[in-house]
Amino acid sequence: MPSCELPMGTCPDMCPAAERAQRERERRLHRFEVAPGCRGDWPRADPHRAVKEYCRPAAGKPRPPPSELRPPSVLLATVRYLASEVAESADASRAEVASFVADRLRAVRQDLALQGAGDAEAAVVLEAALATLLAVVARLGPEAAHGPADLVLLQTQVQEGFGSLRRCYAQGAAPHPRQATFQGLFLLYNLGESGPGGGAERGAGDPSMRKVE
């Protein structure tokens, strides 16, 4: 990713304070983001659990300031939080987990694209994000076709994740350490007429898909 002209993010949290406050006012917090023990009709955001949601760019809308963009180190910490805390939630359906994680990972990719991160650090974030997304989609299983999860949207997010990562690889001067693994996963995921969960289930067998390191 080009490192010139674009600013680096400075937001230290998984979700900017302004967004947390706005979503509190609008009552748009996901239950994964609400402060433990918070009761009543006005849930409060937990700064340690709230994660920036994806916002579709609008025509003519100015680029967000650095204070609303998370730097690569915070983005990687966000992905690891989603992988270890949210993806492993025992009190939520797999469909709910997959939908939440996919949206927040989409916001991770968006933040990364809007700043001047180097290719190496960008690749680490994108690899971790894609591994996490593949894992939650794989856990849905074939029965998800009859459930509440939007499998078409999830498959689109997986393909966008592969696309972002492959573009990052193409911009690098030398192969990245895990490039061959993820290139192979891309081919495996798209092999044949597999459904949204099919390719991910095959990819989940790779050790690099089981843990975000």
Descriptive notes:
- There is one protein chain.
- The longest helix is centred in the last third of the chain and has 21 residues, at 151-171.
- This protein has helices at 17-25, 72-86, 94-113, 119-138, 151-171, 179-189, 198-203, 207-210.
- It is mainly α and 213 residues long.
- The model is unreliable at 193-213 (pLDDT under 50).
- It has one domain.
- InterPro entries: SAC3/GANP/THP3, SAC3/GANP/THP3_conserved.
- This is SAC3 domain-containing protein 1 isoform b.
- It holds the Pfam family SAC3_GANP.
- Residues 14-193 form the SAC3/GANP/THP3 conserved domain.
List the helices and strands and how they pair.
Elements: H1 17-25, H2 72-86, H3 94-113, H4 119-138, H5 151-171, H6 179-189, H7 198-203, H8 207-210
Helix and strand content put the structural class at mainly alpha
The unreliable regions are 193-213
Helix content: 40-55%
In DSSP terms, counting alpha (H) and pi (I) runs of 4 or more, how many helices?
8
Main β sheet profile: none
* Radius of gyration using CA atoms only: 17 Å
What is the N-to-C succession of helices and strands? Answer: HHHHHHHH
How many structural domains does the protein architecture include?
A: 1
Overall pLDDT:
86
InterPro entries: SAC3/GANP/THP3, SAC3/GANP/THP3_conserved
Protein name: SAC3 domain-containing protein 1 isoform b
Pfam family, one: SAC3_GANP
Domain SAC3/GANP/THP3 conserved: 14-193
